[in-house]
Amino acid sequence: PEFDPVGPLCQYSPGVTLPDTSLNGITGSWDPPVVNTSDPGTFIYTFTPDPDQCSIEMTMDIIILPEVTPEFDPIGSLCLNSTPPPLPGTSLNGINGTWDPPVIITTTEGTFEFTFTPDDGQCSVAITIEVEISDEIIPEFNPIGPFCQNLPAPDLPSVSENGLTGTWVPSFIDTSVPGTFTFTFTPDPDQCGVVTQIDISIVNEITPEYNQIGPLCQYSEPPDLPDVSNNGIQGTWVPLNIDT
After folding, report:
1. Secondary structure class of 127 (helix, strand, coil)
2. Which of 40, 124, 133, 194 falls between 20 and 30 A from 175, CA-CA?
3. Are 45 and 31 in contact (CB under 8 A)?
4. Average pLDDT of 112-133?
5. What DSSP character marks residue 82?
6. Is 230 left (phi over 0), alpha (psi -120 to 50) or beta?
């Protein structure tokens, strides 16, 4: 008896009914009668011709290939309105296929499902992955300044109050010139942080102003030196008192 080859077949694919007549006209029966695809491996099927045909028994090896699950590196979480990566057309273990939806859109916050359907003839199953789109985070900082002209200023914080790391432009506070200046904080990648600007004021130097004291007479009772200037500057004197 002669037969076209059967298989290889994919695991869990529909079972095949073996032909009861060979290509060269021999009728008979098979043991087992149907190809079972539930288990991977190589299985022997025996064809026994009906009597009085001068034909011999024959066997056929049929291979059942194991079902393969496509594998992918995790995708995301991605930041809202960021540029998403393309969905790969081939899995890490070599399965080709297509995605539904075909692309990742980051304009809406949430968790979204993407289904990969393998191309035919690969003994592979469809899988679904989830991709999270995370909301943008605005870096938060305690108020900085104002600072007095020509006095030392602290370093700008490299980490926001809500945990975002990043860099500043300008990178430090220059107090040599009075005015209000804008500083831009750019979060490091993969934090869903947005670029934030803050204004820092450098206040002009103020000269304390006082009413004239004296002249005073020797041995007279001097007034106390004022601890607040006419224009509102608090401070201390050296010497502390007027000695007449």
Report:
1. strand
2. 194
3. yes
4. 94
5. P
6. alpha
Q: DSSP characters for 8-33?
A: -EETTSPPEEPPSB-TTS-BEEEESS
Q: Name the token pair of 116.
A: 């990969």
Structure tokens at 8: 């290889």
| DSSP character at residue 98 | E
Cα–Cα distance measured from residue 174 to residue 202, given in angstroms and rounded to the nearest whole number: 8
pTM value is 0.62
pLDDT at position 182, please?
97
Nearest to 129 by CA among 68, 190, 75, 69: 75
pLDDT (mean) for 13-30: 93
CA 148, 150, 151, 155 dihedral sign is positive
The answer to whether the peptide bond before residue 220 is cis (omega within 30 degrees of 0) is no
